[in-house]
Design brief:
Layout lengths: L1 E5 L2 H4 L9 H4 L1 H9 L2 E4 L7 H9 L10 E6 L4 E6 L4 E6 L17 H13 L3 H22 L3 E5 L10 E2 L17 H18 L5
Helix pairs in contact: 3-7
Length: about 210
Amino acid sequence: MKLYFDGDSFTYGGALHDQTHSLEHRWSKRICNYFGAEETNLSKNGVSNDHVLRHLFADGRNLEQYDIIFIQLTFPQRFHFWDNKKNKWRTYSTRSLEWSRDNNKLHNLDPKFIDFINYYADHYYTDKLGMTNELIAYNSIVSHLKLLGKPFFISGLSNYGHIKYDLSFSKFKYMTVSKQDLHPSILGHQQIAKKVLSILRNKYEDLF
């Protein structure tokens, strides 16, 4: 079997980077171990929903080779752009807790672009925009995966609550790394894997 995963740090295992064999503990790996499957995990810390959409619709990936597809959407306040100077995709966010003029994450961005991010956050980003963009991403992915006829599992991180994900990380209780870092701990990833398998079993009995 081959399993496909994509998302942000919650699927990548972001907060486990300081712990031994972190990728062996993340929930995607535990799911693969359960099925005895090969893991393809394209997740990356801090990325936007565009990251996931790009992999599905623009990078020419052959999803037919995968037996189950796991997609995790993130905060719709994150966006991305192509950086010609660095020749790579980069993410920025209008979430005030993540980005500010004092945030060291911004040290390698053009100061004028930082001003744009802050201005956009203050004057143009709205919850209506975020909810609409998240819904468009969700419906696009679901429609595509249904056409493929592949079993799929979609999780979400946003706390808007207007989409019925298979699993919402903002609602599910799991062990965190700390009160300051709400990423799943090793035990948290174990709890998530157990929950995902339970939901998947109810959704696709023939897989088990």
